[in-house]
Amino acid sequence: LKWVSISYRRLNLLYYVTPEWILENGGNFELWDAKVTVPETIVAKFNRLLVMETNDRSWHSVSPVVTDTPRCCVSNYYFSEISPSGLDSFHVTSFTGRPGEYWKRKVGVIDNFLRNTISKTIKIGRGKNLINKTK
User: Fold this and answer.
1) Which of 27, 42, 66, 118 gets the most CB atoms within 10 Å of its CB?
2) 39-42 and 29-32 as β-strands: parallel, antiparallel, unpaired?
C-alpha cells in the first residue's frame, strides 16, 4: 500500500437494492442547494445506481425512513490525490440539521469545528503531508 499525502473523496456511488421501494417510504437521496434549504429528491428505487461528485458544495442527505421495511444500499467512495477545487484542503465530514432543525444546525457548526480542530491537533485522519493520518 502506498500512503499519499492527501486523499480527497471525489465520487460517491450508491446502488439501491431494496425491491419495490417507493418515494413515500422515505430513505431517498437528497441533493441540496447551496443554502441547504431546497432538496432535489431522487427515489432510492431498486437497481438504481446514483453517482455523485463530492466537493465542498455537494450537500446531500437521506430523507428519514418512515416505514418498517429496511432500505438497503451499497455505497462506495472513490478517492483522488487531486482535490475537486484544485486546492489543498482538509476537513472532516460535515453534518448539519435539516431545514427547520435550527438547533441541530447550530450544534453541527460547533461539532464540525471541534472535530476538525481535534483531528488536526492529534494528527488522526487525513491531510497535507500526512499531517492527519491513521497508523
Assistant:
1) 27
2) antiparallel
